[in-house]
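Example 5.3 — Phosphonate C-P lyase system protein PhnH
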Amino acid sequence: MNDTATLPGFADPVHDAQRAFRALLDALARPGRIHRLPPPLRAVPGLGPAAAALALTLVDFETPVWLAPSCAPAAGFLRFHCGCPIVTEPEQAAFAFACGFAELPVLERFALGTEEEPERAATLVVEAAALGEGRALRLRGPGIAGECRTHIGGLDDEWLAARAMLHALYPCGLDLFVTCAERVCGLPRTTRIEPPCAPAEA
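Solution (predicted structure tokens):
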């Protein structure tokens, strides 16, 4: 057990987890909407505040976790507070954490679920370079009235194309939480990310 294991979690474990859970549910129900999560009492090496809060809320002993290299220092914290196994192969993960989209392996390496059991798909948690600014994107799909515009830093055309290919596999696919500091937004597998939109006219 490394030093991160002894770091504290939420200041108010019950109420902070409840607040975070409601925010995360709404983030998936309303893709692109940015929420703020209650952070842990102290910074967790390898995870941003929102990513750590998400783990404290959603991860448990039944959810194997894969960590990208930059997130590896958080392994002790996750084992201690969440009781989750840390796996070495993306295929084994129920949750995967990365700092930046470039740290993710080929998306098809993660569990995509099956038509009979789509809930077995992995959930990705990616710390972005920016949230609410950066690359402009247009979102469409369930939970969005018409379209929604959002901004995420660090996305490139190759990753967006790979994600678009998975969209055609619905109900299989990957759900995504994008975090940045204490903020998070959800991009479930049902959300279509369309080409970057033009800036809105003044």
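Remark. The helical segments are 13-29, 49-58, 75-82, 157-167.
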